[in-house]
Structures are given as C-alpha cells and as structure tokens.
Amino acid sequence: MKRSNAQIACLILVALFMSLLSCSSGGGGDNGTAGSRKWTYMVYIGGDNNLSDAAVADLNEMETVGSSDNVAIAVQVELSPRYTAGAPSDTYRILVQQDSDPNNVSTQGDSIGNVDMANPATLKAFINWAKDTYPAEHYALVVWDHGAGWKTKKFSSPARGAVQDETSGTFMSLPDLAKGVADSGVHFDIINFDACLMAMYEVAYEFKGLTDYMVFSEQTEPGEGDPYDTILAALAANPSMSSRDLSSTIVTKYDAFYTTNDRGGTTKSAVDMSKLDALDMKLLALGTALKSDAASSGVMTTARTIRLDYAYEANHDLGDLCDYLATSAAGPAVKTAAAEVKTALTSMVIANQTNGTDMANSAGLAVYLPLASETNTADLGSYSLLASNKTSRAAASGTWGSYLETLISGAGGGTAIYKPGNFGIKIVWTNVSDQSCNADVDLYVFEPTPSGTGDLFAPWMGQTSPNGFFSADSAASGKSEEYYLANEQVLAGEYYFLVNYYADGATCTKAKVHIYLYDPASLGDSNWHEATSAPVSLDLSSPWTNQPLTSIADLNNYSDWWVPFYITKDSDMTQIVSGSNPLELNKRSQMIIQYKKGFRLF
Is 30's pLDDT higher than 80? Predict the structure, then answer.
C-alpha cells in the first residue's frame, strides 16, 4: 500500500526541525571507533526541490534502525521550505540515531549554512567529513535525488540533473558527480543511486575506478525510493556482510518493498565494477561490427522501435538488445559480438530484480540508443563529453558514441523538436463543504514522445518524466494536492491531463477538485490561475471498471475520472484546448487500457 500520511505530518516536521535547529553538536560526535566499525553508510540527500517531503520520510525510515558501534548512518540533507512547510533552508549534517517512534523524526544535526548541494566540491566535503568523523572498514555512498541517466540538461523551473539544488538554481551533472567522488580520494565499496534512470553503461563507466559495486535503476523510481528501514536493518543485523552481499541486499529489499506495495514497472540492479572493462571492450567491438555490417542499419532502426526502453525512450536495455540481435537479419560478426556483450553483461550484473511484466526483460544495464527523432545536436555534443566517449578513447578503439553518430546519418544531428515549456498543472481538492479531504486523488499526464504515441506518467509511478517532474504522491505527502511542472524546453506535441479519484480517505468519500495552470509566458505572471470555470466532484459511486472507451474523453462519463483539457506545445506559446481531439484521444484510450496489466491504477 502507499505510505501512511502520518509519516510526514506537520507534527513530524516540527519535531524534526526543532531538534535540528536547537542542536549545536549532534552531527559531529563519533559513535564507535575506527577499529570496530564495519560500515559508514553515507547518504547525500539533495532535497531542495519537489522531493523534499520524500526526504523527510526517508530520514524517518533511517531512524527506525539508527547508527551503532558497527554501522554509522551519516547524512547530509537540504530540504525545501517551498515544498515542505516549516522546513529550514540550511543544509544539515546528521549522524542518524535510532528512534522507536516510527512517526517522529528526532535525530539532531549540525547546520553548515545553505550550501549548493549541486556543487561537486560540496559532495567532496561531505564524503571527507563522513570518512574522517566516522571511519570504518567499508564505505557506501547513496546519491539521493532526481536522476536523468547520463543527461546534463538544465531547466529553470525546476532544474534537472542527478542532484538538484533549486535555491541555488543548479544541478550536478554526471561528470560533476564523478568529480566530487574522485576529488574526495575515497574509494567506495558501493555507490548506490536512489534516483531515476541511472542504471546505464555510460553512468557505470563514469565511476570507473571509484567504487567496487554500483546499485541503480534502469527505470524511473517511485517517489519513496529505497526502503531504508529494511536495507539498514539487514546491515545492522549482519554488519560483517561483504560489499557484494550488501549490494544484492539493496536490490532485494527494494524489489520486495514495491512488490508488497503493488507497484508495477520498477527495476533495480547491482553490478560488479571489476567486470566493467570486459563489458566495455565487448560493447566497442559490437559497435565496430555494426559499422561494418551492411544490414545492421535497418536492424538497429527496428531494434530502436520495438525493443525494451524506459521513461527516456532512447534508453534501451542492453541485454534485451543483444538478445534481439542474436536472431535478427544482422550478419554473423554482429551476432557473435552481441552474444559476447550479453555474456560480459551477465557476468557484471550480480543482482537484478524487476517488478511488472513490462520490465520483465530488463537485464540490469541500459545503453543510449536513440532514433534520430529522439536526439539532437546538443544532446549528442553532451554525450561525446562523457568518460566513455572521450576523444582519446575514440582515436584508439572507437566508442559507442562514435557508432551512434554513424547510425544517426553520420551528421550528428537529430530531429527531435523542442518548444518552450516552463508551465505547470496543479490539482487541489477539498470535500464538498470546502473542508480538508484526505481522499487519494491522482494527477496523470500523457506526454508526447518522438514516436508520436505518447506515454503515461503520475507521481506514484515516479517523480521524473521525460519532459518534467511531479510533486510527491498525495498519499505519501499527506497533502491534498499534486502538481506537474514541465521543463524549460519540452518535446513538441500535445500534453493530456487526467484526474483520478483512486480511493476514499478516512474522513472523505467525495472530493471537489480544482485545477490550476502555471504559465508565466502565456499568463504574464508567476502565479497559479484556476484553469476551468468550476471544480469537478469525484467519488467512487460510478467508477470506470474497464468498460470499452471510444476515447479518453469517455472517462468523463464515470464518477472517478476527469479529463479537463489538453495543452499543445506546437508553437512557442501554451494553448489550452478543451473538448476532444478524437484521433489523439483514441490513441491514448488504447494506451490507458494497456496500463491495466502493469500498474496499480487498475
């Protein structure tokens, strides 16, 4: 089930922040000695963004276990007063202590001022503080925040990167993250990304030589992220477990949490970084074979269309791709090279769990494989700067990036069309008497895709989408609101918004839902404006139970759905369109029926 509202209620926040602000030395004292401590589990929480509430919830999970003589849980966290009422604006360093109250965060910590969490120097300083203050035999680093794979795009509201600091208006790119770790001088046993879309060959290569194991997800992560209570409880029960075993434990506990909590479409994997060179060599050999195979261009065009991909459609599962090549029309050299990549991948991935039939073929690592329509010159330019694609490597052996340039017409220029975004949709609900309502209401968006089919996203699926971000799921935040904020630049096309009344609350069985639009370019200010003439009441009196739909607009005939409008981004201005576009809506009606099997919605 979803996380209890009580976990992040205002009382919890007040208790947390009062304890943080009142303490002058709680984060600095040692707990155990270097000679006896087995693990220091470092968690770098970039919560100065719309994940702020989730950061508070995860701190509470960590407290259910707390630090001990054997395991130190060292955290640096920055929250957002914009998204979490009462949160401080400063950054805190904390040694997490055990708290037997699962609904109250009480650990004390030290303020270090308001620092830029997206600066690699800040990450370096945190690592060095944690190591020097809590030395141990083994070190794990969790990078906690939004994630976007290898991409280094920056957007204004909000920014996107592997770590975002909204107050500073900055993000930390993949190379910056690796720089922060490298500059610390600490070699990690494990680096775990509690972030979306990070399980990629390109990401692993960026951390070559910096860690023994990596743990991450090929797909987006739900807002709750890692289950810190069960992961840390397992480590506390067996602090002598090896780095390999802890990496596998993180994967197992993550999968168990989302299986138990009825989430489809999740992935988590762990890789042995000592096997990276072998995989890299075989992948480069595959690129060379593909360049020399006359049939490979058509084969790879088909592969990019039909093989397993993720929230970013250009990210394809490497194992699934190799399985396809093995039975394709490609020549024998390509088939042999693909089989060798699959063997190296299987050796490198030490743990891999998927949840949902749509993710079942995920093998543990994705690779960038865009259609020309899914990339552009700027993207390919950024891609060429990654460690895996450095010019010195290209001169010696070629790179996967050099193969992609050959595949995408050799000109390095894609055709994805982007338009100004920077708009937002927010839903807020009360009961019919305009009082608080704790019913579970969800906001959905169908975003356009380069292929034109569209894809569906919502906060409970994960807070990162290809074109924007969501707030926390209302059931996790305890707030009767959810919102979607588009990136500064978004893929051109139509954005369809849907509202679903998912479940009654303890005191509310009907919700009156208002929908608001944020769009400075079109509306002339930075305020939220009510986007429809009147709110709509939703409940479970006459719900949709998978009856046939002519179009998504038919959902308006049921008491638990509202399809208010769609937004077009085919020009430089936002255009709200009421009513139906029958062709587009019919495409999406078929997709929403398909989601029946994969997600908790149905």
Answer: no
